[in-house]
Design brief:
heterodimer, A: 434 residues, mainly alpha, MetI-like fold, 18 helices, 64% helix, 4% strand, flat, B: 460 residues, two-stranded antiparallel sheet
């Protein structure tokens, strides 16, 4: 205001004269330059925000896309002399069979290099061969080819994450292993198909075998529990507070409470789950049921707030119309207002669930970060969830887990994008404006 | 397992009772040639509610108290020479051993009495679940039998049903209160136990935080120091860095979008900025570890600065990015609440846009912006995963943003991760920290609410 004030405080000249003078024109230009600068700051700020988002997604994609494919080695397994009891396939010496198959890949190598050879393919090879034979017992006594994941180091080498030209003691694969890999590739035994194990296998100590299936199932169970608890309770609470509650101290307290709960840090909900569900009620650790209950407590305020907004958006004429033709208060609300508010409530619920899906801290506290190598078969069996699986992998030192962590994040973000897309679609499709 | 059929059986019973109640009133109304008091469906609902609610209450009560009673029966049936001279902690261990054996996990050579107790536990559990099934089905059938007799044309079924749904809704809204009370009570209770071990003032004003407890009871080692000040200092440092990133960027973004941007730009940029708020915090944590921290270290090395691999700067900067949309959307709301007439008035006086914004609109929107910033600070303090992954573990009261510091939330998570015993000060300390966190964030939220409400200018 200072320029304007000074312009007005010089009475001999009018504002018009002031502006037309050399000095006034300069001042106006300066003020407009300041305005343009200010505007540029705003654009810079937006560019920073968007740029960071782009960098974030860019690094995740560039470090994670390699995990969506997996280097496989085609190994020829000879079971003609193997001692396998068809009645008890599991008991055979699968380790020996796998070692023999792997060593037969490199007939030129002496037995003393057995370790080097074994390190070429995943340590899970015996189990993969065993499972294949158990699925198809006709393989017993035959010679067949099977695709086995390469070990993490060879996988990294194939994907170009390891620089062949760097000094030998700086990289994790030896010159000999690189030679063996090139030999296999020349024989056409190396392939790099889509990494289905990432979506079908559970966690593993070995990155080349680790997958997200256990975490996806765990997250699904937890979200199901969360939905079943938070959705009905949240909507009932919203209907009561918005449509029936008298305006008194008690309901005001409930309202303030709900608003505050929405802002309580998530880790505190984890403490609540740990102290109440695990400690007082003695529920099992790491169970998706407990995770879902904890997440439900966290999501409920979000659902209540969104549902109240949806109810508020329904015009009073709907209620009055229903009451006018003789409906009771509850009939008016449940039969007429609620269906109209439902799209908004569903949108809020999906957004709340999307938040719950990405939430990590409360799940860590109730132990859903355990190392579990099988998908949970019930809501009470120990499990991980997608975000906690990401946490576990991010903490793992093996190189292959870096790419897998990024890939897991991309999967998680994919789920979130889908959920939000459904919410947006619901809102645009079903929501009415009055 | 009989109990796994319970939901199905109960569901079928409820469905049956609904259909039965509706049929019954229809038949009765036809026979007496009168119109019943309520619509047919309400009679069905009435019987169905009677069938479902008591049964549900029994199930919940059984699930809550059944295991406790079974455990107590098993423990009290142990021979005296086994339990003699054991304190409550040892008894707890014994109970855990019995449960493990009952679950099929056997360590070492358990004594015969323990094995017998485990078998008894298993058989009692079986009896309990069968009994629950029988009792619940009986309760449901009895309730149907009772309520179906009341189905008659002059019975006010709608009023009864509506009263029930009303109280169910009240119950649901009280759950919000119950959650808060649960949080407060569990935090207070465990913190109280902690303060019996560590004096309150030492926790609040102690200057060393070193929760390393001796592994064995007889080990001669440090008792562990539980002074929360350095932890709090780390939290403050990281939050300050986060706000230094988030406030300018968020505020300028909001101002540009609200005051300068043409409608199309605003409509497309705003949702994209808000994507930042939808990204899970663990993703930011990984981003900080994978990209930001190494980059900061490189930059530091290039100018001869020693940057810790888990510096406060990396965690704080990434947290700031997370908070940008929070500040920008709350400020955007506040700026939008300022009436157009103020802008028009300033423009009529010859003010440029910038002068209008800085001297007219910003002061008018200030309470809302300050409230939003306070909420953002509370979120920064309570944020967990970014700091768990990117910040340090060692409490270090420093103002140097390139050193590693730890925060309240990091300590809570690290103290409670893995197996937890509920009698060591180490785990209880996490609850004391949680209480501190809860009080601070609650205070900030309340202040934010008051600021926005009390100082808001009204232009009506």
């Amino acid at each position: 205001m200072s320029e304007i004030e000074s312009a007005m405080s010089t009475p001999p000249r009018t504002i018009g004269q002031e502006l037309m003078s050399e000095e006034g024109a300069r001042r106006v230009r300066r003020r407009y330059r300041a305005d343009a600068r200010f505007r540029a700051y705003g654009i810079i700020a937006i560019c920073i925000a968007l740029g960071v988002l782009a960098i974030l997604v860019g690094t995740l994609v560039s470090s994670g896309y390699t995990a969506f494919v997996q280097t496989q080695v085609r190994v020829t397994v000879d079971l003609r002399d193997a001692d396998i009891d068809p009645a008890d396939v599991r008991a055979a010496n699968w380790r020996g069979i796998a070692t023999g198959a792997i060593e037969s890949l490199f007939p030129d190598l002496p037995q003393s290099d057995a370790r080097v050879m074994r390190d070429m393919v995943s340590q899970g090879a015996p189990f993969i061969i065993r499972d294949a034979v158990m699925d198809d017992p006709a393989l017993i006594g035959t010679v067949f080819d099977i695709e086995i994941p390469a070990s993490d180091r060879i996988d990294q080498l194939n994907k170009g994450a390891i620089d062949r030209d760097s000094p030998a003691d700086h990289r994790v694969v030896t010159d000999q292993q690189i030679g063996l890999f090139d030999q296999l590739e020349a024989e056409g035994r190396i392939s790099t198909p889509f990494n289905t194990a990432l979506f079908t296998a559970a966690d593993s100590r070995f990155p080349e075998l680790a997958g997200l299936w256990g975490a996806i199932v765990g997250s699904f169970y937890a979200l199901a529990v969360c939905l079943v608890l938070a959705f009905p309770i949240g909507i009932a609470a919203a209907i009561y507070l918005e449509e029936f509650a008298p305006k008194n101290r008690w309901t005001e307290m409930i309202e303030i409470n709900i608003n505050n709960l929405a802002a309580v840090p998530s880790v505190v909900f984890g403490l609540l789950g740990l102290a109440v569900f695990l400690n007082v009620f003695g529920m099992p650790r790491s169970a998706p049921l407990v995770g879902g209950m904890t997440l439900a407590l966290m999501t409920m305020p979000t659902i209540i707030i969104a549902s109240r907004a949806a109810l508020k958006a329904v015009p009073p004429s709907i209620r009055e119309g229903a009451l006018g033709v003789g409906a009771s208060h509850q009939q008016a609300v449940l039969h007429h207002v609620l269906p109209l508010a439902m799209p908004g409530m569903l949108t809020g619920t999906i957004i709340g669930l999307a938040q719950a899906l990405g939430e990590t801290a409360p799940l860590l506290l109730i132990g859903m970060n355990a190392f579990i190598t099988a998908a949970p078969d019930s809501m009470l069996s120990p499990s991980t969830a997608l975000p906690t699986q990401i946490y576990i992998w991010a903490d793992s030192p093996e190189r292959g887990f870096v790419a897998r962590t990024s890939a897991a994040i991309l999967v998680l973000l994919g789920f979130l994008v889908c959920m939000n897309a459904i919410a947006i679609w619901l809102r645009s499709r079903l929501e009415r404006r009055w | 397992m009989l109990t796994s059929y319970l939901p199905v059986v109960l569901g079928l019973l409820i469905l049956y009772s609904f259909v039965m109640g509706r049929r019954r009133i229809r038949v009765a109304a036809d026979a007496q040639a009168v119109r019943p008091h309520s619509q047919f469906g309400y009679y069905g609902l009435y019987v169905a509610l009677w069938c479902g609610l008591p049964a549900l209450i029994v199930v919940l009560a059984w699930l809550m108290f059944g295991p406790v009673i079974v455990d107590a029966v098993v423990m009290s049936s142990l021979p005296d020479q086994v339990t003699a001279g054991l304190d409550s902690a040892k008894l707890g261990l014994l109970e855990a051993e019995i449960k493990a054996i009952a679950g099929g996990v056997v360590f070492g050579e358990p004594s015969a009495a323990v094995v017998a107790a485990a078998e008894r536990l298993n058989s009692l559990r079986g009896i309990s679940s069968t009994a629950m099934f029988v009792v619940v089905v009986c309760v449901a059938l009895g309730a149907i039998a009772y309520s179906r007799r009341r189905v008659a044309p002059d019975f006010r079924a709608r009023n009864k049903v509506e009263r029930t749904t009303f109280w169910l809704m009240v119950l649901c809204s009280v759950i919000a209160i119950v959650t808060t009370v649960g949080i407060v009570l569990s935090l207070l209770f465990e913190s109280f136990r902690f303060f019996q071990l560590v004096p309150f003032w030492e926790f609040l004003f102690g200057t060393t935080w070193d929760p390393q407890m001796p592994i064995r009871a007889d080990q001669v080692a440090a008792e562990g120091a539980f002074g929360a000040l350095p932890v709090l200092a780390g939290t403050v440092l990281i939050s300050v860095i986060a706000m230094l990133v988030a406030i300018p960027v968020g505020l300028l973004t909001a101002i540009y979008l609200a005051e300068y941007a043409p409608g199309r730009v605003r409509a497309s940029v705003k949702p994209v900025v808000e994507i930042l708020a939808g990204i899970p915090t663990i993703v930011y944590g990984f981003f900080a570890v994978l990209t930001v921290a190494p980059w900061l270290r490189q930059m530091g090395a290039a100018i001869g600065l020693d940057v810790a691999p888990n510096s406060a700067m990396a965690a704080g900067a990434v947290m700031g990015i997370m908070i940008i949309p929070f500040i920008s959307s709350l400020s955007d709301d506040a700026l939008h609440a300022v009436p157009q007439s103020l802008r028009d008035g300033a423009a009529a006086l010859g003010a440029t846009r910038r002068e209008t914004i800085i001297q007219v609109i910003f002061p008018a929107a200030l309470p809302g912006i300050v409230g939003g910033i306070l909420l953002a600070v509370s979120r920064a303090i309570g944020e967990t995963m970014i700091v768990v992954m990117a910040a340090g573990l060692i409490a270090n009261a420093t103002a140097n943003p390139f050193e590693a510091v730890t925060t309240v939330t990091v300590q809570i998570v690290t103290l409670l991760i893995g197996d937890t015993e509920f009698d060591s000060p180490k785990t209880l300390a996490a609850f004391a920290l949680g209480l501190m966190l809860f009080v601070i964030t609650l205070g900030l939220n309340l202040v934010a609410l008051t600021v926005t409400k009390k100082y808001r200018e009204r232009y009506e």
